[in-house]
Amino acid sequence: NQNRTIPIAEIASFCRIREVCGRFVLCDCGESGILKRLSHSKSVNYVIFMCGRDEIFEKVKGLHFDEFCVRVFGSERGLEREIGSLITGRVNLDQPENELRVFFVGDGVIFTRKLFSPERGFESRRATKRPFFSPISLHPKLARAMVNLSRAREMVLDPLCGTGGILIEAGLMGLGIYGNDISRTIVDGCIRNLTHFGIEDFRIYNRDICELDLHNAEAIVTDMPYGKSSFMNHEDLSTLYDRSLRKFHQMLAVGKRAVICTNSLSELRIPSGLRFESVHRVYVHRSMERYVCSFVKL
């Protein structure tokens, strides 16, 4: 994964992380269902036990599952049959009630039961798959990650929404969505895109950002305009960024977050009342990187 800090930060938005073991994140989560929102994680598994490599066969003796299969990951692939023979219950390799996943990590073993894999239909929602197309649009996987980094539980506001990539992901997560764009054509296209993906509950405005009369937003998530292809109403980036960040501060509820994507950290002059929380570098291609930044309203 080119965006190496985002997967862990996304999980930390919902859970208390205990340890990071290579590609595995061990965490406490009282509400595991919310992890279905994750964009950069392959699966969510419940840890049954952890042990050393030489303890695994002794530890699985006596375990019982009415119906199960065993999948082994890591350097010890091929041990499924041997481990499974020590567990009582009926083996079902096709559609088991319990998929037991055994991860060999370094000198240890993590023995788990798979809960679920987060939603993975991002490619079907790429910009080119939408009825209204704009080349300036985040990949749906990154858009969803940004919504998660905002820690939104009820609603998301995208005050520079463009064709609606962020709002589509937030809407599919069941969040209330509010959007705005200065272009009437873009707003109409955004509405077409939202409707195309079955999202019906939304409010989209067609105003300059400073004309928005919205307050106490739980989360602001947006992709800041960049480059010559972006519609900026002939405004230079520096001015747009300055007044946008001030407006974000005005619209956010205290203690809530704004998460933005930008290709220029030098354009960010953070107003008083907003605290810079984190930045994640996102590889786009050989000649381009972007930055996902999080701010908290004090």
Task: Write the topology of this structure.
Elements: H1 6-12, E1 16-21, E2 24-28, E3 44-52, H2 56-60, E4 64-73, H3 80-84, E5 88-91, E6 98-105, E7 108-116, H4 140-149, E8 155-158, H5 165-172, E9 176-180, H6 184-196, E10 202-205, E11 217-223, H7 237-251, E12 252-262, E13 274-285, E14 288-297
Parallel strand pairs: 4-5, 4-6, 8-9, 9-10, 11-12
Antiparallel strand pairs: 1-2, 3-7, 6-7, 12-14, 13-14
Helix pairs in contact: 1-4, 4-5
Describe this structure in words.
The structure is a single chain. By secondary structure, the chain is α/β, with parallel strands linked by helices. It has a 5-stranded mixed sheet. Helix 1 packs across helix 4 and helix 4 packs across helix 5. It is elongated, with a radius of gyration of 22 Å.
Keywords:
7 helices; four-stranded mixed β-sheet; alpha/beta; 298 residues; single chain; five-stranded mixed β-sheet; 14 strands
Total of helices: 7
Largest sheet: 5 strands, mixed
Name the strands of the widest sheet in spatial order. 3-7-6-4-5
Mean pLDDT: 92
> What's the number of extended β-strand segments?
14
In short:
By secondary structure, this protein is an alpha/beta fold.
